[in-house]
Write a structure and sequence with these properties.
Layout: H1 6-12, E1 26-30, H2 34-45, E2 59-62, E3 68-72, E4 94-97, H3 100-109, E5 113-114, E6 123-127, E7 133-138
Parallel strand pairs: 1-3, 4-7
Antiparallel strand pairs: 2-3, 5-6, 6-7
Length: 140
């Protein structure tokens, strides 16, 4: 009989249950100017800036219903470069609406850059000031 050392036993032992939860806790969005980004997102989402503290000089969690959104200058992930961390080029999050046409008109009225118009009667894409693409979609 071959005995296994404690080290080799530890490598083959599997946890009895997966400790990773099947949900998205938050989405990080890279921004260059945390205060400017906070103002833009608060205006877009109807949030009071006073409810959005800037933490450690580079993080701003937005109070959301459901999955959280955290604005971050990302000093550890390229935000320390002059151009900042790269923007998200494909929509990484969807903001739902019950009034798609109204949402499009509101976005236009506050000067949001549109990437698309309403597509398939269901969604449109906008850009934040840092170039991150975001989707606005009918709530399903």
């Amino acid at each position: 009989m071959i005995e296994q050392s404690p080290a080799s036993t530890a490598r083959t032992t599997q946890p009895s249950a997966n400790p990773i939860k099947n949900k998205v806790g938050s989405v990080f969005l890279p921004v260059r100017d945390i205060e400017k980004a906070r103002s833009w997102y608060c205006r877009l989402l109807g949030i009071q800036e006073l409810d959005c503290p800037i933490i450690a000089g580079h993080l701003c969690p937005l109070p959301m219903q459901g999955t959280g959104v955290i604005l971050d200058t990302m000093p550890k992930w390229g935000g320390d470069r002059p151009e900042g961390a790269p923007p998200i080029e494909t929509p990484a999050c969807v903001f739902p609406t019950d009034d798609l046409e109204g949402a499009l008109q509101f976005a236009k009225s506050i000067g949001v850059e549109l990437v698309t118009g309403i597509e398939h009667g269901h969604w449109f894409v906008i850009k934040d000031p840092d170039g991150n693409k975001l989707m606005i979609s009918r709530e399903m």
